[in-house]
Structures are given as structure tokens and as C-alpha cells.
Amino acid sequence: MTSPVANTYKRLPVSFTHGEGVWLHDESGKRYLDALSGIAVCGLGHAHPAVTAAICEQAARVLHTSNLYGIPLQEKLAASLLSHCGLDSVFFGNSGAEANEAAIKVARAYGHGKGVDEPAIVVMQGAFHGRTLATLSATGSRKVQAGFEPLVSGFVRVPYGDSDAVEALARTRSDVVAVFVEPVLGEGGVVIPGDDYLPALRRICDRHGWLLMLDEIQTGMGRTGHWFAHQHADLVPDVMTLAKALGNGVPIGACLFGGAARDVLGPGMHGSTFGGNPLACAAALAVMHTIENDDLVANAAAMGARLVAGLEAGLEGLNSVREVRAKGLMVAVEMAHPCAELVTMALERGLLINVTADQVVRLLPPIIINASEVDQLVERLCRTVRDWSAGQGA
Known about the structure:
Low-confidence stretches: none
Largest sheet: 7 strands, mixed
Helix content: 25-40%
Radius of gyration: 21 Å
CATH architecture of the largest domain: 3-Layer(aba) Sandwich
Strand content: 15-25%
CATH superfamily of the largest domain: Type I PLP-dependent aspartate aminotransferase-like (Major domain)
Distance between the termini: 40 Å
Mean pLDDT: 97
Number of helices: 12
């Protein structure tokens, strides 16, 4: 029978009924270790009691009033976010794509304020910023863009990790107003740039009066062992976007502004019907408080190190494995060949992973994961990779 749901996903043959912590249960009762967290969304795992309580309590009060009125929970959430990053104000939307749309609009408005008629934004090869027309145009993937031309203009693309290529644009173009970049490429294969990459971009932007805009939708909220990945480099951006783990599954996005971007948007210049409504903010505040109270940023760093050490030991000697790399609990096992089959093989063994960039096993387990669960993840994945490698003759 044909599904009434639009055919926009190639779904795996499993459906889940409930979960707890890092575990999910399917309709037959089989249990799975979730090493993907709904693609970096459920940082606190499944059915976290603090998030559950916040949602239930808020649902009994008020779900939505619109941004025509004050929303105290929105003020509290904004203050909590800003206290961890040094920026000045927050716009709330419903998703990462919406947060990135806000960032793009800020850059354009900033450019027009400087007298640039057609402002250009520097973006990166291999980047992923969303699937709206503007964000897919900023994305560095023809697979995402194909079939949706004409693309939105105003983006200049350079190689990821190459700050010299960004600096070179200043010598040839006068229309650039911002650099938009992920601190770690997520969908692009968990590509980790050199330690000086973001500091170099910060210096370039300062020198030329450009905005430094960071897409932290996948890297933020403790994922990499800091609240936000750019904090590994000890800098502050002008714009930062968040979503995914901010609501632990409740849709919410945020675009944070500071520096020269602080006052670019005024009343009427941007908006969202549902953005930052009381329910979403209540859930996100519970997430913030739990990360703070349970020291989960430090846990992500420690468990990420344990995971990498276990994988390196368990996969040693396999020619099919090129590299294990990570920032906190954002982990990649890069294979020598395309390896999409590993997803279904791992599923059969009760492990949820995904493969991105054709040959990179991406692991994004909940940041609440403990040592015993990390060891189980290592055992299941290493066994799966070794079985797959034997079938490849590697």
C-alpha cells in the first residue's frame, strides 16, 4: 500500500515506540543503542524526566500566545544562552534552517547598512546549512541543490579549512560582508579544521569589517566538549545559530547576535509565528538547566575521549579504516570505501548510526552517555565494521 506521507525520505525498516536514556525500543520490543540522537537532537537522550516534566507542566498552562506579547520563558531562555557565549541578543525560530535564514538576512541587512548594494556571504565547500532556498544555496552540496535552480545569489564559495582563500577574496571583491561557516563540518563528514582556522577567520573579518557567522546547529549545546564548538578556539562570533539539541526533540531554533550584528534587525524586519513559544522555551530551559546541573559538557569531553580510544583499539589493523576523529561526542570513522551497508548491519545488531559523505560513519550519541554504554557502542560498532571489512576482503 502506498504511504500517504510524502516520499521525501528513504526510511530504514524500523519504527520506535518508546525510549529511555540512550536506548530506543521498536515495535517488536527489540532494544537499540542510539548513537545518532535523532541526528544530534536528543542530547539528553529519550524521555528525560526534566524535559518531560517541563513539557507537561507548560502544556497545562499555555502553549502559544504569539510574539505580539511578552513571553517570560523566552526572556529566561535568551538570558541563559547568552550567559554561556558572550553574545547580546537572540531571535527564536522553529528550526536550524530558520535560524540560518535569520543569519543570512542579518548579513544582507548589515551590508546594505554599509552601502553595499548586493552583499555577498562567503560560504564553504562541503557545508550544510539547510534545505530552504536560501540555506540550500549556501550549502556546499550539489546533491542538496539539484532540481531547485535557480539558486539564491549572493554566496561566494571557497574550500573549507582554507583561511587564505577567504583572505584572497578581500583583494578581489568589495561586496563581501560576512563569512558563514560550521566549526566542524557535520553532514560534510565530520571534518575538523586546523586549530587556527576559526581564529584566522575572526582576524580576517575584523580586518575587513565582515561579520563572522557560525552555524553551531550540530556542534552546539555541549556536543564537542564545550558549550559551543568555537569556544575551543577562544573567540566570539558576531552571529551564531543553534537548533537541534536546544529542545531535545521539541522544535526550536535560535539566532544569536553580538558585536556589529547586535542591532541590525529592528521591529518588523523579521518574525516567526511559532518561534520561541512558551512550550518550546520551557523544554529548552529544561535542557539548559540539565546540562548545567549534571556537568554534561565535561561528560561529552570525557566520553568522547573514551569512545575514540575504544574505536582506535578495536579497529586497529583494518585497512578498510582510514581514520577515527572527533571533537567531544561528535565522532567519525572514515572508511576507505563507500560503506552505506554499515547502517543496516548495525541496525541488525541493535545500534543506530548513519553514514555521511558516502564513507564516513558518523556517531552523535546523547551527551548523557556513560562509560558502560560507550563500551557497548564500541563493541557493537567494531564487530560490525570488522564483519563488513571481511566481506570487502579488507
